[in-house]
Design brief:
526 residues; mainly beta; 45% strand
């Protein structure tokens, strides 16, 4: 009653008599006593400062490495996560450097773990960021993000599985999945006629505090012989097949229905006649979820290369018809009845080496981003006029590459009047034309970022552009100083006032370039 009375008082005080308007005004920071107002104002100021013409991004640090370089929330990891460098300082500086690890301790995958808000946790170390890593010897370790110290360790592989390789989130920062590599029998065993029915193992953990939920196997006898991969996301078990089929199952229902017995880390147990401790070497984790029958199917679709996405409002999914000739053609359909949306076939008709790509916008607006070599289309779902039960795809805005100086005439006339016909035409992603390579979204500043590249000869030039996420207007362009080779692998991170470019060259050579926001002055023209 007190809360309701306070809400009514707030409504009366600001002259707002509509709950929806009140919530909208609160989201925009109209009420100074709301918890997030100061943070939103600060981010708004940062966005304005960053997009000013006088603000520059300066290359403050560059490094090279013979091992992969990773970036997570202001931290740069090198030497297989043995070296950690902060990128938040005025110049990147070392946080910790551990001694070189043996090959048996090599880290296969890692996830950053951040403290949930408003929860009581058992250990003081749980309130600080940590890194969950998976080693080649099947150890799951939780490391302090500030010192690299091992806070917790769990041995995963018992007698059932020896090759855990992948970490992913089911529910971000809440439920984690550890997946094995696909089980394959040695050639000699296959020749002897031995059958391998278990394809993958999945271990499920609740995080902070780290607790074991269960382990299950993906078996041919239950899911079929042609399973090629499996994933878990947002409570859905996704099973992919060699013929392009994708099937979805309720993962939570599977855990509840087929769990034989629950176990806790550190608990003594007896499994198949062996006594051990859960999560300790050499017993590892018991496979306590046994799927004995095919779970109820939620949804299935057939798509080229198993490409399948769900999003939008109301729920829609994106697939490519399961034939090679349809590569680059995307169908947007209703999840409710599989009906194709009006204008739901998206085809840029690109003639390029690299295909265009499409995905639901990560800003939770329900929009769709479709990226081609020289065009980015932001699409939205809306009701068809006079047909409330039907949806159509409409263009929200487009971003076009700068190709004003590009001339690609198939017929030219020389000074003497001779007509010359070209025997070929340029591809849409020809390196000598400005081409979009990366599109990302910075959620805290609500900016859409794009990387466009032009390469002439061996010299490639790239620039990072910031666009208004609502209307697509260009707000800022940042030239990257280093040469960009389109044949190399690249990652670009835009994190508030930081830009970080990681490049992988042939022969496992890695480079990292860090840019930070600086105010331009007469003394510093960089």
């Amino acid at each position: 009653q007190a809360a309701a009375g306070g809400g009514r008082a707030a409504l009366r005080a600001c002259g707002v008599h509509n709950v929806c308007r009140l919530l909208s005004r609160r989201a925009h920071g109209f009420y100074a006593r709301d918890a997030g107002v100061a943070h939103r104002k600060n981010l708004g100021l940062l966005r304005k400062i960053m997009c000013q013409e006088s603000t520059k991004f300066k290359n403050v640090w560059t490094t090279h490495s013979a091992s992969p370089i990773a970036y997570e929330r202001g931290r740069i990891y090198m030497d297989n996560y043995q070296c950690c460098i902060t990128s938040i300082a005025q110049q990147p500086r070392l946080i910790y450097q551990k001694s070189k690890c043996a090959k048996s301790e090599k880290i296969e995958d890692a996830l950053l773990l951040e403290c949930p808000l408003g929860e009581m946790l058992p250990s003081p170390s749980d309130y600080k960021a940590s890194l969950i890593v998976l080693t080649v010897q099947n150890w799951l370790l939780r490391l302090s993000a500030d010192s690299g110290e091992v806070l917790e360790k769990v041995y995963l592989a018992g007698s059932c599985c020896k090759f855990f390789r992948y970490l992913s989130w089911d529910t971000p920062q809440e439920v984690m999945i550890v997946k094995s590599a696909q089980n394959k029998l040695p050639a000699a065993a296959r020749q002897a006629g031995i059958q391998q029915t278990v394809l993958f193992y999945l271990a499920v953990f609740q995080v902070l505090p780290l607790s074991f939920i269960g382990m299950l196997e993906i078996n041919k006898k239950i899911f079929g012989n042609s399973v090629t991969d499996v994933a878990v996301s947002n409570g859905i078990l996704i099973v992919m097949y060699s013929m392009g089929l994708v099937r979805l199952y309720n993962f939570k229902a599977i855990l509840e229905q087929f769990m034989e017995q629950s176990y806790e880390l550190g608990q003594e147990f007896n499994w198949n006649g062996q006594a051990g401790i859960v999560g300790k070497y050499p017993f590892g984790l018991p496979c306590n979820i046994k799927i004995t029958d095919t779970p109820p199917l939620l949804f299935e679709a057939s798509s080229l290369e198993n490409a399948f996405q769900i999003g939008g409002y109301p729920w829609h999914y994106i697939i490519t018809p399961n034939k090679k000739k349809h590569k680059g053609v995307f169908h947007i359909c209703s999840l409710k009845d599989n009906a194709l949306a009006k204008n739901g076939i998206q085809d840029m008709k690109c003639c390029s080496l690299e295909p265009d790509w499409i995905y639901f916008h990560p800003d939770m607006s329900g929009r769709i981003i479709h990226v081609g070599p020289n065009l980015i289309k932001v699409l939205k779902l809306k009701e068809v006029k006079n047909h409330a039960d039907q949806m159509e795809i409409a263009e929200d805005f487009t971003i076009v590459a700068n190709r004003e100086n590009c001339v690609n005439n198939s017929v030219t006339v020389t000074a003497s009047g001779r007509v010359v016909k070209k025997r070929f035409t340029l591809l849409d992603d020809d390196p000598e034309q400005e081409t979009f390579k990366i599109v990302d979204y910075e959620d805290e500043l609500d900016l859409l970022s794009t990387v466009a590249v032009t390469q002439i000869g061996s010299d490639g030039r790239a620039h990072l552009d910031f666009h208004c996420n609502e209307h697509g207007i260009l707000l800022k362009s940042i030239p990257l100083k280093e040469s960009w080779d389109v044949t190399y692998s690249h990652e670009v991170y835009f994190d508030k006032d930081l830009v970080l470019h990681i490049e992988q060259k042939p022969n496992r050579r890695f480079s990292c370039y860090v840019y930070q926001m600086v105010c331009d002055t007469a003394r510093d023209d960089d």
